[in-house]
Amino acid sequence: MKPEVYAMQTFTAERKSLRVAIVTASTGFGGAEKQMYYQARSLIGVGAQVRLFSFMESGVHSRALHDYGVETEVLGDNRTVRLARLIRALMSFRPNVIQSIHAYTNVYSAIAGKIVGAVSIGGLREDVDRHFRSNPRFGRHLLRATDAIIVNSLRALNQLCARKIIDASRCYYLPNVIDLTLPPMRSREDSAACTCISAGRLIHSKRFDLFLEALAAARKEGSFLRGVIAGDGPEAQSLLDLSELLGLTPNEVSFPGMVSNLQSALAQGDIFLLCSESEGTPNVVIEAMAAGMPVITTPAGDAADLVRQAKAGIVVPFGDLKALVSAITLLARAPSLRVELGESGRRYIARHHNAADLAGRLLAVYAQAAQSQQNRGSEAVNAIQSTASPGTLTSRCDV
Prior knowledge:
Rossmann fold, disordered C terminus, seven-stranded parallel beta sheet, alpha/beta, six-stranded parallel beta sheet, disordered N terminus, elongated
């Protein structure tokens, strides 16, 4: 059986509005958290009732969602207390759907769903190999616990189904999206300087060390280059030390830390680099393309397919310093090519990753998952029927 991507349904019945509980590890900065924000906002936009349950203290996205009327309850650190608090709150809210954002929050959604009679939707935001490396003991259970699971990369979807980790009928692909009401990056074609940007959590798998080595090597090729690494994490100090070892001054590479507005940071750059060893669908690549930046990326997750299909940049092999330097040098010396690739990438994002299309896609997943759960799913189907307008739910199957 080929994996379902979006479910096929069109609804017209009048019922009570859909109630959705979203379970997340945090509501702070991060790609998963940003997509959670877009999903909650899109559901509110079509009339659903949404409540947010976070393991950690309220962050930037819960504060933003508060303006839309979304309440956030912090569940805390203790696992047993956390589950009890979640179930108690859900007994009052009575959600039709409980959606987990991260793989390690799936079990909470699964248990709570069975107790309160809701359809549970899990999440996986990385490739399957990395998931099992991070969860060697309970990795398979985390993927199978919920009634259905949403992944944000086709690579992960194909891995789940090909290895028969979970039945294909329970797997759904929901691409990352971005708000395209923001203007694209201003054209810097007339600038002699060229700034390379990368962003993300400063951990080894993101390979920011390779970014620094490539920047230092490319500068020796004669191009006037500077670099920016936006983000925070455990490797922050070691990356600072490496930049000094490579002879990169603070004027040649900067570390602004975690930035509250990545779009503003991207507007100061000319080339975006992703050197990661492992990803799902990298949110930062979508944001860079939406900002009109050309992208140089490794084949991590869906990044390579994204860039190739959009004709938005260059794909280099994992860990290949020479190829990375060559790609940087090529784009640094061709400002008109940078503009051409950047414009192509933004057009692609507008067609395939626009936040305006998210509500229909998400409701389609809920509908298909609910229909497979006879008793628990019937009320959810009725609620989705009242939330979705005719033609809202579309299909895209057999990818």
